[in-house]
C-alpha cells in the first residue's frame, strides 16, 4: 500500500517546528554573530537554549537519549520545517555535521564512548566533527587517505592534514579517519578514532574562506601532529572506516536534502509574494508568462524533490541500506534545489542579489550542497556502476 498522508501527530510537530523557526529563529538571521564563517558558537549556544526551552532540541535521537526517536520519514517532515531558516537546524541540533555524527555514534560507539562523546553533543553542550577530507585527495575517494595511525605501545599516534572540516574550530567530539598501518594487534587500513578536540596534537591551522555561511564556525584546515590517543580511542573495529562512513553518509545525504528543501521552499514563497505585488507593463509580474513559468517550474521541482526524499526514507525505514537510493536523491535534489534558488533570484530581479531578502543567502549557501557528501558527478558514477553491475537478466 502506498500512502502519502502525514499522520496528525506529525502534522502537529511539523507546524510546531515551523512556527518556532519562523517566529523565534528567523530574527537571528540579521544577528552579527552570523558571520562569513557561519554562526559563531555564541550564537549557536543561544539558539540551542531557545530550542531546549521549546522542547525541540535533538528531537531526532532515540528515546533512550531523550529524543523522540524519529524515523527517517518522520525526519523528512520535521527537517523540512526546520530548514525554513538555515539557522533552524542549528537551533534544534539537527544540522550537519552533528546530526550525522550523532547517528553514527549511536550505532557503533561503546557505552563509555557514548557517555563521554555522544551525550554532550545530544544535549547541545558541545559540537562534533567528522575529519576525513584531505587536501591531497581523500574526500569523494576516501581510498586516497594519507593521514596515518601507528601503534606505539599502548597508544595510537596519528599524523596528517585535513581540510574542509566543518565546525573544527571549537568542536570537542572528534571522529578522525586515518590509515592504521600494519600492527601486532591484527587489522589495519582505514580506521575511525574518537577523541576530545582539546587533545594535544590537534592543530587548527585556519578557518577557510568559503561562499557558504550556514555551518557553525565554518570549515577548518587541521593538522594532526603526533596526536597520541589511547587504544580505547578506536571507534568500532579497526579497518572498517569506509563501511562505517557509508552507515553515516546514506542517511546524512537525505537529511541534507530535507533541510535544503525547507530553505528552497522559503525562497520560493518569497518569490511568489514578490511576483504578486511587483508590477511591470501594467500588471503583476507573475501574470507575465516568463515569470509565471519560473514559479511553475519551482513548484514542480519542489514536489518532485519531496517525493524522492520520502521514497528513499521509506526504503531506509524498511531496513535497506539505501546507498543507491540516497545517491540518486542527493544527485537529483541538490541540482533541482539549486535551480529553484536560482529561479527565485531571477524572479526577484535586482533585490534578488541583495540582502533585502534571505534569498541571496540561500542561493549562495545552497550552491555548496551540490558538492558536499559527494558531488553530483560522483553519485552519478556510483549509480551507473550499480546499473552496469546488475547484468541484463530480469
N/C terminus separation: 24 Å
**Mean pLDDT value:** 96
Biggest β-sheet description: 8 strands, mixed
Shape: globular
Strand content range: 15-25%
Protein structure class: alpha+beta
What is the C-alpha radius of gyration, as a whole number of Å?
22 Å
Query: Percent range for helical residues?
Result: 40-55%
Number of helices: 11
Provide an overview of this structure.
- The protein is an alpha+beta fold and 394 residues long.
- The protein has helices at 8-25, 41-53, 72-82, 88-92, 98-108, 111-122, 241-277, 289-317, 323-348, 359-367, 376-389, and strands at 34-35, 38-39, 128-131, 148-152, 155-166, 173-180, 189-196, 202-207, 219-230, 234-235, 279-280, 283-284.
- The strands form three sheets. Strands 3, 4, 5, 6, 7, 8, 9 and 10 form an eight-stranded mixed beta sheet that branches. Strands 1-2 form a two-stranded antiparallel ribbon.
- Helix 7 runs parallel beside helix 9 (323-348), helix 8 (289-317) packs antiparallel against helix 9 (323-348) and helix 9 runs antiparallel to helix 11 (376-389).
- The radius of gyration is 22 Å and the shape is globular.
- The two termini are 24 Å apart.
Task: List the SSEs and their pairings.
Layout: H1 8-25, E1 34-35, E2 38-39, H2 41-53, H3 72-82, H4 88-92, H5 98-108, H6 111-122, E3 128-131, E4 148-152, E5 155-166, E6 173-180, E7 189-196, E8 202-207, E9 219-230, E10 234-235, H7 241-277, E11 279-280, E12 283-284, H8 289-317, H9 323-348, H10 359-367, H11 376-389
Helix pairs in contact: 1-3, 3-7, 5-6, 5-7, 7-8, 7-9, 8-9, 9-10, 9-11
Amino acid at each position: 500500500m502506498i500512502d502519502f498522508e502525514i499522520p496528525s501527530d506529525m502534522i502537529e510537530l511539523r507546524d510546531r517546528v515551523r512556527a518556532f523557526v519562523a517566529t523565534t529563529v528567523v530574527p537571528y538571521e540579521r544577528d552579527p554573530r552570523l558571520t562569513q564563517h557561519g554562526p559563531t558558537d555564541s550564537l549557536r549556544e543561544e539558539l540551542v537554549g531557545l530550542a531546549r526551552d521549546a522542547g525541540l532540541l535533538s528531537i531526532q535521537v532515540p528515546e533512550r537519549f531523550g529524543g523522540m526517536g524519529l524515523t527517517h520519514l518522520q525526519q523528512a517532515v520535521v527537517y523540512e520545517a526546520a530548514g525554513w531558516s538555515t539557522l533552524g537546524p542549528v537551533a534544534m541540533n539537527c544540522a550537519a555535521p552533528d546530526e550525522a555524527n550523532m547517528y553514527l555514534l549511536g550505532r557503533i560507539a561503546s557505552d563509555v564512548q557514548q557517555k563521554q562523546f555522544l551525550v554532550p553533543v545530544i544535549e547541545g553542550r558541545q559540537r562534533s566533527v567528522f575529519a576525513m577530507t584531505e587536501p591531497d585527495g581523500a574526500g569523494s575517494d576516501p581510498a586516497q587517505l594519507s593521514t596515518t595511525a601507528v601503534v606505539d605501545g599502548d597508544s595510537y599516534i596519528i599524523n596528517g592534514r585535513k581540510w574542509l572540516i566543518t565546525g573544527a574550530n571549537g568542536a570537542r567530539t572528534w571522529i578522525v579517519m586515518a590509515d592504521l598501518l600494519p600492527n601486532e594487534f591484527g587489522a589495519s587500513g582505514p580506521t575511525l578514532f574518537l577523541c576530545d578536540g582539546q587533545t594535544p596534537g590537534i592543530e587548527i591551522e585556519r578557518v577557510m574562506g568559503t561562499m557558504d555561511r550556514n555551518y557553525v564556525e565554518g570549515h577548518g584546515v587541521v593538522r594532526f601532529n603526533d596526536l597520541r590517543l589511547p587504544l580505547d580511542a578506536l571507534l568500532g573495529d579497526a579497518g572498517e572506516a569506509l563501511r562505517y562512513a557509508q552507515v553515516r553518509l546514506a542517511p546524512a545525504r537525505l537529511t541534507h536534502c530535507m533541510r535544503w528543501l525547507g530553505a528552497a521552499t522559503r525562497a520560493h514563497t518569497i518569490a511568489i509574494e514578490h511576483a504578486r505585488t511587483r508590477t511591470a507593463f501594467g500588471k503583476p509580474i507573475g501574470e507575465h508568462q516568463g515569470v509565471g513559468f519560473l514559479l511553475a517550474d519551482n513548484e514542480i521541482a519542489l514536489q518532485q524533490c519531496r517525493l524522492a526524499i520520502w521514497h528513499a526514507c521509506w526504503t531506509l525505514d524498511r531496513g535497506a541500506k539505501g546507498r543507491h537510493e540516497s545517491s540518486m536523491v542527493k544527485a537529483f535534489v541538490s541540482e533541482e534545489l539549486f535551480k529553484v534558488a536560482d529561479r527565485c533570484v531571477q524572479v526577484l530581479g535586482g533585490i534578488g542579489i541583495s540582502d533585502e531578502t534571505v534569498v541571496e543567502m540561500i542561493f549562495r549557501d545552497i550552491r555548496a550542497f551540490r558538492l558536499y557528501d559527494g558531488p553530483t558527478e560522483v553519485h552519478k558514477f556510483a549509480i551507473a556502476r550499480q546499473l552496469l553491475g546488475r547484468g541484463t537478466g530480469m
